[in-house]
Amino acid sequence: MAEHTLTELIGMLKRKQDGGAQVYVQTHNFPDPDAIASAFGMQKLLAHYDIRAGICYHGKIDRVNTRKMLELIGIEMRSKDELDGIMKETDPIICVDSQKEGGNILDLIGDEVACVDHHPTVQEIEYFYKDVRIVGSCATLITEYFRTLEVPMDRPTATALLYGLKMDTMGFSRGVKEQDIDAFAFLYRLADNDLLSRLEHNQMMFHDLGAYGAAISETEVYGKVGFSRIPFACPEALIAIASDFLLSLDEVDVAIIYAIREDGFKYSIRSEVRDVDAGRLVGRALDGIGNGGGHAFMAGGFVPSERLAELGPDPDGVLRDRFLQVLKEEFHYEV
User: Fold this and answer.
1) Averaged over 105-117, what is the pLDDT?
2) What are the tens digits of pLDDT across the range 235-263?
């Protein structure tokens, strides 16, 4: 199937809607601020063309900052459970900040016609429209659409996109490209910066400190590779925050942290070493027993509980050794 332009996508979605279909914008399973902002921005962009798109996801809105974002900006999202029996096979879906079969997005019953993402391509999937570019945030790509098509952007949309951009680049300290800087300059003039400040503060709850405490007490360092485990289930976004914290240690250049959940081990990987690609590292380490991928500097992975049982009495040790082996053999990194 030949890929089409954004304008052609809009035309196709309009025809689908006129024929009785409901258009959806789907984020990855545990949407973070960038995924939410990108979905909201796409929803508003399509609304300019009289296309009524709903935002959907599978998983949980499990962080203080994401719940606050939905509340303060007025973003409505529907979970997979809410759409059971409602979504049809012919309903078009636009995947944002994720890709079908990418390991972090459930394949819903609808028809994935488009993909807008800033992560490397995991599998070659055919879409009517595809835009995958390696930039700091998916919000940057959505912002570019407004500018290219000269669609007016309101303040809530600009605020959401700017917040997503800042969060995914960790305040412009990682993965920043020239397009992100251009997007920031454009969004900053339109956004509600008082609201942005409210979103950026108070992002944790008191009970989140338990995960930090566990991550600190369970940390082991091999060379400059830090391993840590959170021996209980915790929100996916909190695991990512803990891995950022582990990477902040002077003794750690590559951070590998995971939480032990009922359904398996959930991993978050960080790398500030140019030659160690976090996405490739987790993908190779979990190959055959789980899945993983992401950016060169940050990535995630998952090993389901049924596969953990195959690793013997010490799955933690087996998985740690798999990561160390990949680091040594494929990245020639001393551990």
Assistant:
1) 93
2) 777 888 889 889 989 999 999 999 998 88
HSE value, Cβ hemisphere, 13 Å, CA-based, for 19: 11
With a cut of 90, say whether residue 202 has pLDDT above it: no
Number of residues that this document lists for the chain: 335
In a domain, 308, yes or no: yes
Residue 204's pLDDT band, with cuts at 50, 70 and 90, is low
Same domain, 72 and 192: yes
Phi-psi sector, 21: left (phi>0), alpha (psi -120 to 50), beta:
beta
Among residues 157, 176, 200, the one where a domain terminates is: 200
Same domain? For 76 and 222 the reply is no
Find tokens 């809530």 and name the residue.
Answer: 156
Asked if residue 101 belongs to a domain, the reply is yes
Comparing CA positions, the residue from 110, 38, 29 lying closest to residue 75 is: 38
For the chain, the domain total comes to: 2
Q: How far apart are CA 24 and CA 221, in angstroms?
A: 44
334 part of a folded domain: no
Distances in Å between the Cα of 93 and the Cα atoms of 23, 201, 312, 320 are: 6, 33, 41, 37
Residue 75's pLDDT band, with cuts at 50, 70 and 90, is very high
DSSP letter at 252?
-
Identity at 189, one-letter amino acid code: R
Residue 296 binned pLDDT confidence (cut-offs 50, 70, 90): confident
* Same domain (yes/no): 226, 169: no
Separation CA 42–CA 210 (nearest Å): 36
Please give the residue range of the domain that contains residue 127.
Answer: 6-200
Give this prediction's pTM: 0.80
Task: Report residue 226 CA to chain centroid gap.
Answer: 22
Same domain flag for 89 and 235:
no
Residue with tokens 């079908």: 100
Tell how strand 298-304 and strand 264-271 pair up: antiparallel
6-10, 195-199, 222-226: least confident range: 195-199
